[in-house]
Every structure is written in structure tokens, then in C-alpha cells.
Design a protein that fits this description.
Layout (H helix, E strand, L loop, with lengths): L2 H10 L4 H7 L6 H10 L6 H13 L2 H8 L3 H15 L4 E3 L4 E3 L1 H27 L5 E7 L1 H18 L3 E7 L6 H4 L3 E5 L8 E14 L1 H6 L14 E4 L6 E7 L5 E6 L3 E3 L2 H9 L4 E5 H4 L9 E2 L4 E3 L1 E8 L7 H17 L12 H10 L1
Parallel strand pairs: 3-4, 3-5, 7-10, 7-11
Antiparallel strand pairs: 1-2, 5-14, 6-11, 6-12, 6-14, 8-9, 8-13
């Protein structure tokens, strides 16, 4: 019997017998045996087990990284660390495939069981919690803050009275760290793919004017006819802006370079300017309220409209998300549409004369 075999026999009768049998046939180098002895002392990294399980199930490091929302390098390092700690190879890697070793399959089964226990514990603690509490810091753009986010926060705090909310309105805050906040409310496409976003609503600007203005000027019927009118628009510091329209059949699009007659940076001020008969402007649908239904404002160009925009709640990571953040995201996705029923239902010119009379009474 060789020295190596004799050592194996001696270990097999000692306190490491299970470790030796586990490694049988794996051709472990002496250094690996040293690591395997330490396995009995050092606790396993459960996060590495989770990463290994995801990679094994996906049969790909890159796909496992995508599902976990972490870099591939992180996934590769975690699996390598786990293999080093156990002293065995869990995965056979090649340029074309990735498959489990025999011991890797057994470890995967135990990893799934361990992960399941962890999830059960978290679920138990969550279900037994007396309530959701803490501070939630939110940044939202002014264009929707007053008409959508403030009512949404009020409704949320009615359901979760132990949560304090710090709401900041800003159209420049695009980074969670810079804003010192857990959540950003965004309008339009996401610019940072590393953030986690959930859409809660779809809105669009509406092209509006007052009966007072139409009493003096003919209503435009095409985007190009707008250039002959006084235009009111949101101001972001530019003297020249663009309005983009799409036809109802989505087959035609028009982008106009406009120089507004009046620019404002607040939707309430813009609505008041339109009500005063200053001109024609783009007002976010969340800010319209009942102004159109009551005849105070009139929606123009029914065959053309502004592009739809997604309102999303954005947070930094899918891991270790605080309970107030989790609950607000779920609440916003469920409740936001009901706060503004008929949000994008167009109401067009029916009778300018009668609309003017209605405005005169008000």
C-alpha cells in the first residue's frame, strides 16, 4: 500500500472519515486536502452557495450573473471561492458548456435546501412583523409631484402610518446617492441600466388651450399650424425647445422646433397661463384634472398626440431592499392608476362657442 493510500486509510478511521469519502476519486492535491480539513471548522459562505445554485441552474456564468443582477466577475469569484473552501471542483468548465461534477450535483441539492430554509425564515419574520416603519426618502420631478406623487404618498401613509416620508421635488436629481434617497420617481426612459425600475403608470402630455384663446384664434389642426400660434411650454433653461407628435395610427411623426411665447417650470403655473388665454401649451395629463371635462380647457388636434411616457419608481438594488421601499413600490404600482381615472381619455373640441360661454360663466 502506498504512503498516500495509508494516509487515506488512517483518515478514513478518524474524525475526517466523511470528508475523505466525499473526496474519493476526486484526485485532491495536498493543498486541497488542507482546505478540506478547514471546512469542518470554517462556516460555509451561504451567499456563495446561492451564487453557485444560480449558475448551476442557468448552466452559464453570464446567465447566472444576469439573474442575480451582479457582474460576471463576481459570480465567477464566488464559485471559485466556494470550490476552494470545499476543496472540490463543483463545475466542469469548457469553452462551450458548463456542467456539474458528481459532487457538484450533490452540493446543489443541499444548496437548494439551505436557500429554501433561509427564505422560509425571512418569510416567517416578515409575516410576524408588527408593521412597517422607518423613514422613506423620495425624489420626484415637479411636473408630477403635486398632482400624482403627493396624493400617492398621502394614501400610502394612510395604509402605513408608521412610515415617515421625506419628499423632495427636483427635475435634476437623477442619482440616488447624490440625492441621498432610497427612491427616485422618473418620467420617460431609464438612463441608468444599473438601477432597478418598476413602471407604475403611463402618461402623456396633452395639447391644450382655453376657450378664451380660441375665441380669438382658429384652432390648429396639424402640428405645423402650431408655429403660427403663441405657445406655452415647460422651461428647462433652454430658449429653444422641441415638441414631437405622432399620429393616431402611429404611421406619421412630426418634430417641431419651437420658441415659446411663455415658458414656465411648474405645471400649476402653466395651467393658470392657459386658463388666462395666453396661448397653446403642453400640460402633463396628471395635471389636467377636471379642467377639460368642465370646459375650462380644450384639447387640440385629436388626430395627433404627444408620445406616451412611463412613470417609474427607481431604487438602487434588488438585494437588501428596506421594507418601506418594498411596500411603497408595491403600493404605487397598485394604487397610482386609480388615483387618476380616465387619465389619457381625450376630450376634444365639440363646440368652441358653447365652450367659451362655459368659460365665461366660470
Amino acid at each position: 500500500m502506498s504512503v498516500t493510500s495509508m494516509q487515506g486509510e488512517r483518515l478514513a478511521t478518524g474524525r475526517h472519515a466523511e470528508v475523505v469519502r466525499l473526496h474519493d476519486g476526486c484526485k485532491i492535491r495536498p493543498a486541497a486536502r488542507q482546505r478540506s480539513r478547514r471546512t469542518a471548522i470554517n462556516p460555509l459562505n451561504l451567499n456563495s452557495l446561492l451564487v453557485f445554485a444560480k449558475v448551476a441552474e442557468a448552466q452559464s456564468f453570464s446567465e447566472g450573473a444576469r439573474r442575480l443582477r451582479v457582474p460576471v466577475s463576481t459570480v465567477s469569484r464566488q464559485v471559485a471561492d466556494l470550490e476552494a473552501q470545499l476543496g472540490v471542483r463543483l463545475l466542469e468548465r469548457s469553452t462551450r458548456s458548463l456542467k456539474l461534477t458528481g459532487i457538484g450535483a450533490e452540493v446543489l441539492a443541499e444548496a437548494r435546501a439551505t436557500i429554501g430554509i433561509g427564505e422560509s425564515i425571512l418569510s416567517l419574520v416578515s409575516s410576524r412583523s408588527s408593521g412597517v416603519s422607518g423613514l422613506l426618502r423620495i425624489v420626484a420631478p415637479p411636473s408630477i409631484a403635486s398632482f400624482l406623487i403627493t396624493p400617492l404618498v398621502a394614501a400610502f401613509q394612510t395604509s402605513y402610518p408608521e412610515v415617515r416620508v421625506h419628499l423632495i421635488t427636483s427635475d435634476r436629481a437623477t442619482d440616488l446617492c447624490a440625492a441621498d434617497s432610497e427612491l427616485l420617481i422618473t418620467v420617460g426612459p431609464m438612463k441608468d441600466s444599473s438601477r432597478i425600475a418598476r413602471k407604475i403608470l403611463t402618461i402623456r402630455d396633452r395639447l391644450l388651450t382655453s376657450p378664451t384663446y380660441l375665441h380669438m384664434r382658429k384652432a390648429p389642426e396639424t402640428p405645423n399650424e402650431l408655429l403660427g400660434h403663441r405657445l406655452v411650454a415647460f422651461s428647462f433653461g433652454e430658449s429653444l425647445r422641441e415638441w414631437s407628435f405622432v399620429s393616431n395610427n402611429h404611421q406619421n411623426g412630426v418634430t417641431l422646433a419651437i420658441e415659446p411665447y411663455l415658458t414656465v417650470n411648474d405645471p400649476t403655473s402653466l395651467a393658470n397661463a392657459l386658463l388666462a388665454g395666453v396661448g397653446i401649451g403642453n400640460l402633463p395629463s396628471v395635471a389636467v384634472g377636471g379642467l377639460v371635462q368642465k370646459g375650462q380647457l380644450i384639447e387640440l388636434m385629436p388626430q395627433w398626440h404627444f408620445n406616451a411616457l412611463d412613470v417609474s419608481v427607481v431604487h438602487a438594488s434588488s438585494r437588501h431592499v428596506p421594507r418601506p421601499v418594498q411596500e411603497f413600490i408595491r403600493f404605487a404600482a397598485r394604487v397610482a392608476p386609480s388615483l387618476l381615472p380616465g387619465l389619457d381619455r381625450p376630450v376634444h373640441i365639440r363646440d368652441v362657442a358653447s365652450a367659451f360661454e362655459a368659460r365665461a360663466v366660470l
